[in-house]
Structure formats: C-alpha cells, structure tokens
Automatic annotation (TrEMBL):
<dbReference type="Pfam" id="PF01451">
    <property type="entry name" value="LMWPc"/>
</dbReference>
<protein>
    <recommendedName>
        <fullName>protein-tyrosine-phosphatase</fullName>
        <ecNumber>3.1.3.48</ecNumber>
    </recommendedName>
</protein>
<keyword id="KW-0904">Protein phosphatase</keyword>
<dbReference type="InterPro" id="IPR050438">
    <property type="entry name" value="LMW_PTPase"/>
</dbReference>
<dbReference type="InterPro" id="IPR023485">
    <property type="entry name" value="Ptyr_pPase"/>
</dbReference>
<keyword id="KW-0378">Hydrolase</keyword>
<comment type="similarity">
    <text>Belongs to the low molecular weight phosphotyrosine protein phosphatase family.</text>
</comment>
<dbReference type="InterPro" id="IPR036196">
    <property type="entry name" value="Ptyr_pPase_sf"/>
</dbReference>
<dbReference type="GO" id="GO:0004725">
    <property type="term" value="F:protein tyrosine phosphatase activity"/>
</dbReference>
<dbReference type="InterPro" id="IPR017867">
    <property type="entry name" value="Tyr_phospatase_low_mol_wt"/>
</dbReference>
<feature type="domain" description="Phosphotyrosine protein phosphatase I">
    <location>
        <begin position="2"/>
        <end position="149"/>
    </location>
</feature>
Length: 161
C-alpha cells in the first residue's frame, strides 16, 4: 500500500478537492486498492467541517464523491504514516516541515511539480481567488500526472491480469 496525503492551509478548499479527484482517478484506473489517500490542513480553523461549498459544487459537477470527508489538522504521525505529502503551495511545504520536524521519513513535494511546464508553481487558493474552476483544472492535470508518475516509478502497480 502506498500512502499519499494532500496538504493545504484550511483543508476545506484545495486539499479535499485533490483528495477526491485523485481518489476518483485511482479508482478509474483500478488502483484504489493500492493507494491510501487522505488530506489535511496545516491550520486548525475548520476542523471537522466538510469541504467548502465551492469545492463541493465543482466535485458535484464532475460526479466525484467527497462523502465522509471532514477537515483535520496535520499530525506528527502523518510524517511516519504517509509515503508522500503533496503540498498545494510553497508556504504549505514550510508549514509541513515545521509541523513534522526535520526527521520525517515522508517525501514532501509541491503538487504542481508533477506538471511539466506548468505556468504556476502553486495551486491558487480559491478561498481567496474565488476561482474554484481554475483550481480544479490544475488539480485535475496534476492528479493525472501524479498517478502516471507513481506507476512509472514503480511505487504502485497495476493488478496482474
Ligand atoms: P484551503 O483554503 O487551504 O485551500 O483549504 C483556505 C481555507 C480557509 C482559510 C484559508 C485558506 N482560512 O483562513 O480560514
């Protein structure tokens, strides 16, 4: 089992969108049983809340489930449990390192680092931009790229037929 944790600031806009979209792509590829997917925030303002209305509207429009997803804050043990921590922006990377300390075994990466030639380095925060569509387009592309990367790198394997 390969474990991926998506991380943003509030865990109500970007990282829950990434969790739901990436899980949907993994399910479509028949890889749901090989990957554990979760999300969290580095801040604690929205703990226990479902995804933001804007994120829910996008996911509903795409027919992607977010059932049971509730915001939580990053925990020290996330650095031990997860193989890959995927940050939405550079400030998330810094906050993750601060929360987990330097001895975490997990790899910490920016989500858009998986998109070659991406015009942005950070996934814009729709909590401030209001543009959930733009954020979805970036998360959608990055999810496909991340899945392809994990397969190519041999981190996850397609079931033998
Ligand atoms: P997210 O967006 O990090 O994509 O979930 C935010 C949500 C809430 C806040 C900031 C960003 N906030 O300050 O409450």
């Amino acid at each position: 089992m390969y474990r991926v944790l998506f991380v943003c600031l509030g865990n109500i806009c970007r990282s829950p969108m990434a969790e739901a979209v990436f899980r949907n792509r993994a399910e479509k590829a028949g890889l749901a049983g090989s990957i554990e997917i979760d999300s969290c925030g580095t801040g604690d303002w929205h703990m226990g809340k479902p995804p933001h209305e804007g994120t829910r509207r996008i996911l509903d429009g795409q027919g992607i489930s977010y059932e049971g997803m509730l915001a939580r804050r990053i925990r020290a043990e996330d650095g031990e449990r997860f193989d890959l921590l995927v940050a939405m922006d550079e400030s998330n990377v810094a906050a993750i390192r601060e929360a987990l300390g330097s001895d975490t075994k997990a790899e910490v990466v920016r989500f858009l680092s998986f998109v070659p030639g991406a015009r942005l380095t950070d996934v814009p925060d729709p909590y401030y931009t209001g543009d959930f569509e733009e954020t979805y387009e970036l998360i959608s592309e990055a999810s496909d790229r991340l899945l392809a990367h994990l397969l190519e790198a041999g981190k996850i394997k397609t079931a033998a037929i």
